[in-house]
């Protein structure tokens, strides 16, 4: 960000800088999951691979929990460091690690106890059960190491050491590649050897990441950092809930597929084991190519977000074109490979009989028939996150698997058996593609309208700010109930004192800081969105929700403003953000119900019958936002230097009283 100008540098160069590291990390992670199956296919047989596909949902559940605390802790770390609360950041990291460790041990023990039941739940057949038990019991022993290592990996990236995190992951993957053939072929341990190789590599990854605890750049962990706080653990977990939901969606899909293959496979010529085995392998092959698309799109996030926030819509559209072009190229290449050489792709995982190879070709060619559409569908979900559209992003992310694929698979399998499960793939891809294209077209049209609409506004908003050099800047922060007239009081007060007022003009500063659009900020600031939806759309790099990114950006903007000169700042938790600054006067303005309604109707255009309901709704949102980010009570008048009922005094007298109080407290105001 510091070396490359996101607003001026060539889009191709920016994408290269940001996307390549993402692609490498994601592909390495995908390969890590596929290595066992390659060696098992050659060293055991395809039934061994079927067993790993039965155990796979169990490991994904554990991965979901570890990512929830890993990404949640990363978000908490970034948030608190942005607020300059280092001690709270340290406690958050300590609690996140401890919570992951405790749950990893619990899950590991639970898997050891209930493994036979879990194998049945996730579609294990009598033929696959013995393999799955041998593989699953050893994998369960390594669960604590895998989970803690994964949690630490996310935190290490957030601490500003992505190379360390990537190196740790690559070492684990390479070690797994080395140990798999040794344990399977040299020591003739079969599927147990593959599981043992995986666990050893996870332990090494865990140890490398543990060593980092003494190398943190932004914080220093002490014993007090690990003092358990259930409230803090809950906060960390909620920040990472999006990662949990994403992984659990995979579990739901795999469970549905395996269940359907169990039900309809027996009546087909392929049986039950072949479809379960083959489908798992095909999806992991496809995941390697999907990882490239995700990496391209995720790398574009800071580019899109920054330029969208700066209202450089031409660069946003140019970036989108690059992403869609590159993603489509990857998905078209994938389509060609899947349609032309499926037998060679499946042969990487060992040999099978004629029916095994036949179903593999059918799965590649039928289930992935519309793979060339995936580039646009995957990229669009990440794109809408970058421009602050969490609802659209969440819908696009979940639509294919949960909304389209599972219902289609259930319905079609009743008519076409195992082939119905395969037919559901292109149907889901097709519907998801159509929706993505429609939403993208509509969004681009909005870009064009906003580009024309804001052309004149940009000139006004780019007026040079006055540089007021004062040794002791007077900062007046005004929190106010909606309809109390607080904004107008702030305007008159600023004029009377001859200092600058910051209210709406803060939006562009925050937009540039956060990468969120000005329209999004105006709509969402001082308001907490639905936490489940917001957390689902946490951003790829810092794992923060848009609410958190917005608050951090406002914090930075307000601190920058306070250094420039005396001013009046309306709302936005400025009193709390600047609480350690000298010469800060905090004001809270309120009004009685009748006058708030009258003012809202007259000046804000609300209908009288609905005015009170709307006023209460807005005040509740402001209160919730303030309480969440400050830990204080918005309506607690003891938090403020001055608290006044505007209508009891009138606007003019309120302004005069604030001025008189300030004059007594400082020597700056005249």
How does this structure look, described?
With 670 residues, the protein is mainly α. It folds into three domains: 1-30 and 266-463, no CATH class; 44-219 and 227-263, no CATH class; 467-665, Rossmann fold (3-Layer(aba) Sandwich). It is built from 26 helices and five strands. It has helices spanning 11-43, 46-82, 86-121, 126-158, 162-186, 190-211, 230-239, 241-265, 273-309, 313-340, 342-347, 354-367, 374-386, 390-416, 418-453, 455-461, 486-497, 506-514, 518-524, 531-536, 546-564, 574-577, 593-604, 608-630, 646-649, 651-665, and strands at 475-480, 500-502, 567-570, 584-590, 642-645. It has a five-stranded parallel β-sheet, sandwiched between helices. The longest helix has 37 residues, at 46-82. The protein is elongated, with a radius of gyration of 28 Å. The protein starts with 10 loop residues before the first helix and ends in a 5-residue tail after the last helix.
In spatial order, strands of the major sheet run 2-3-1-4-5
> What is the residue-averaged pLDDT?
85
Characterize the main sheet.
5 strands, parallel
End-to-end gap: 43 Å
Strand residue content: under 5%
Per-chain topology:
Layout: H1 11-43, H2 46-82, H3 86-121, H4 126-158, H5 162-186, H6 190-211, H7 230-239, H8 241-265, H9 273-309, H10 313-340, H11 342-347, H12 354-367, H13 374-386, H14 390-416, H15 418-453, H16 455-461, E1 475-480, H17 486-497, E2 500-502, H18 506-514, H19 518-524, H20 531-536, H21 546-564, E3 567-570, H22 574-577, E4 584-590, H23 593-604, H24 608-630, E5 642-645, H25 646-649, H26 651-665
Parallel strand pairs: 1-3, 1-4, 2-3, 4-5
Helix pairs in contact: 1-2, 1-5, 1-6, 1-9, 2-3, 2-4, 2-7, 2-8, 2-9, 3-4, 3-7, 4-5, 4-6, 5-6, 8-9, 8-14, 9-10, 9-12, 9-13, 9-18, 10-13, 12-15, 13-14, 13-15, 14-15, 17-26, 18-21, 23-24
């Amino acid at each position: 960000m510091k070396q490359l100008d996101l607003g001026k540098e060539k889009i191709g160069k920016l994408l290269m800088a940001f996307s390549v590291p993402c692609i490498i990390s994601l592909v390495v992670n995908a390969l890590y999951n596929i290595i066992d199956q390659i060696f098992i296919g050659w060293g055991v047989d395809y039934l061994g691979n079927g067993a790993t596909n039965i155990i796979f949902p169990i490991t994904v559940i554990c991965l979901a929990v570890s990512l929830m605390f890993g990404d949640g802790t990363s978000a908490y770390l970034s948030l608190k460091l942005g607020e300059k609360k280092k001690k709270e950041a340290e406690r958050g990291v300590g609690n996140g690690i401890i919570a992951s460790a405790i749950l990893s041990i619990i899950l590991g023990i639970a898997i050891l106890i209930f493994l036979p039941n879990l194998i049945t739940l996730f579609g294990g057949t009598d033929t696959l059960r013995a393999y799955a038990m041998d593989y699953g019991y050893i994998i369960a022993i390594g669960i604590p190491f895998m989970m803690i290592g994964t949690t630490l990996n996310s935190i290490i990236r957030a601490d500003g050491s992505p190379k360390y995190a990537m190196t740790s992951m690559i070492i684990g993957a390479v070690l797994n590649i080395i140990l798999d053939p040794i344990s399977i072929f040299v020591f003739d341990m079969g599927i147990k050897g593959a599981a043992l190789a995986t666990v050893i590599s996870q332990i090494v990854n865990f140890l490398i990441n543990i060593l980092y605890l003494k190398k943190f750049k932004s914080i220093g962990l002490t014993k007090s950092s690990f003092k358990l706080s259930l409230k803090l653990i809950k906060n960390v977990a909620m920040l990472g809930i999006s990662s949990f939901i994403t992984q659990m969606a995979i579990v739901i899909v795999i469970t549905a597929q395996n269940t359907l293959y169990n039900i309809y496979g027996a009546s087909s010529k392929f049986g039950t084991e072949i479809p379960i085995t083959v489908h798992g392998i095909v999806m992991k092959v496809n995941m390697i190519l999907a990882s490239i698309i995700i990496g391209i799109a995720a790398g574009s996030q800071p580019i899109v977000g920054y330029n969208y926030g700066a209202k450089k819509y031409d660069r946003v559209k140019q970036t989108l074109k690059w992403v869609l072009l590159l993603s489509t190229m990857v998905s078209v290449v994938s389509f060609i490979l899947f349609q032309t050489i499926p037998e060679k792709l499946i042969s990487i995982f060992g040999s099978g009989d004629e029916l095994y190879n036949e179903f593999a070709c059918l799965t590649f060619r039928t289930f992935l028939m519309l793979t060339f559409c995936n580039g646009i569908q995957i990229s669009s979900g990440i794109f809408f996150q970058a421009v602050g559209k969490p609802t659209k992003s969440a819908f696009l992310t979940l639509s294919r698997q949960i909304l389209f694929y599972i219902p289609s698979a259930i319905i079609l399998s009743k008519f076409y058996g195992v082939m119905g499960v395969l037919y559901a793939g292109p149907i889901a891809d097709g519907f998801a593609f159509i929706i993505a294209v429609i939403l993208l077209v509509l969004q681009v049209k909005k870009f064009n309208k906003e580009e024309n609409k804001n052309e004149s506004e940009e000139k006004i908003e780019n007026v040079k700010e006055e540089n007021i050099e004062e040794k002791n800047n007077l900062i007046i922060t005004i929190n106010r109930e909606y309809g109390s007239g607080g904004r107008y009081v702030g305007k008159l007060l600023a004029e009377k004192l001859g200092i600058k007022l910051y209210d709406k003009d803060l939006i562009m500063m925050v937009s540039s800081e956060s990468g969120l659009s000005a329209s999004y900020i105006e709509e969402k600031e001082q308001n907490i969105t639905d936490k489940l939806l917001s957390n689902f759309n946490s951003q790829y790099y810092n794992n923060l929700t848009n609410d958190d990114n917005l608050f951090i950006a406002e914090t930075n903007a307000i601190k920058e403003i306070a250094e420039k000169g005396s001013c009046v700042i309306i709302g936005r938790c400025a009193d709390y953000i600047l609480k350690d600054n000298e010469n800060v006067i905090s004001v809270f303005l309120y009004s009685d119900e009748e006058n708030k309604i009258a003012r809202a109707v007259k000046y804000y255009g609300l209908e009288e019958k609905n005015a009170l309901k709307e006023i209460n709704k807005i005040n509740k949102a402001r209160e919730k936002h303030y309480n969440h980010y400050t830990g204080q009570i918005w309506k607690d008048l003891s938090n403020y230097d001055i608290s006044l009922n505007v209508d009891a005094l009138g606007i003019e007298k309120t302004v005069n009283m604030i001025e008189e109080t300030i004059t007594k407290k400082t020597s700056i105001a005249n």
